[in-house]
């Protein structure tokens, strides 16, 4: 089995109250130097077999139709992720 990760972010012109709250919290805790924070969503989809270009295309289509709200969000990434049990994913 393989995993595909989808990342969705608010469109740049959309206000991001969660990002603003995180930004304020960082400042309150003494973390300086961050000028902006945007909060997005991450989805992990497990697929059977290998992640091919066709699978990634199908996942992007699903992300644009179901996982995101196209009025206020953009699908910014759809990618295969290494199995955490493999050497490259182990930490």
UniProtKB/TrEMBL annotation:
This is Phosphoribosylformylglycinamidine synthase subunit PurS. It is an enzyme of class 6 (ligase). Pathway: Purine metabolism; IMP biosynthesis via de novo pathway; 5-amino-1-(5-phospho-D-ribosyl)imidazole from N(2)-formyl-N(1)-(5-phospho-D-ribosyl)glycinamide: step 1/2. Its main location: cytoplasm. The keyword Hydrolase does not apply. Keywords: ATP-binding, Cytoplasm, Ligase, Nucleotide-binding, Purine biosynthesis. It comes from Brevibacterium luteolum. Part of the FGAM synthase complex composed of 1 PurL, 1 PurQ and 2 PurS subunits. The lineage of its organism: Bacteria, Bacillati, Actinomycetota, Actinomycetes, Micrococcales.
């Amino acid at each position: 089995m393989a995993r595909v990760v989808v990342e969705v972010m608010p469109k740049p012109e959309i206000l991001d109250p969660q990002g603003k709250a995180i930004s304020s919290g960082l400042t309150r805790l003494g973390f300086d130097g961050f000028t902006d924070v945007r909060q997005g969503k991450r989805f992990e989809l497990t697929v059977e077999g290998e992640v091919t270009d066709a699978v990634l295309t199908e996942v992007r289509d699903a992300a644009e139709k179901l996982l995101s709200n196209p009025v206020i969000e953009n699908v910014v990434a759809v990618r295969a992720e290494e199995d955490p049990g493999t050497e490259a994913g182990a930490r």
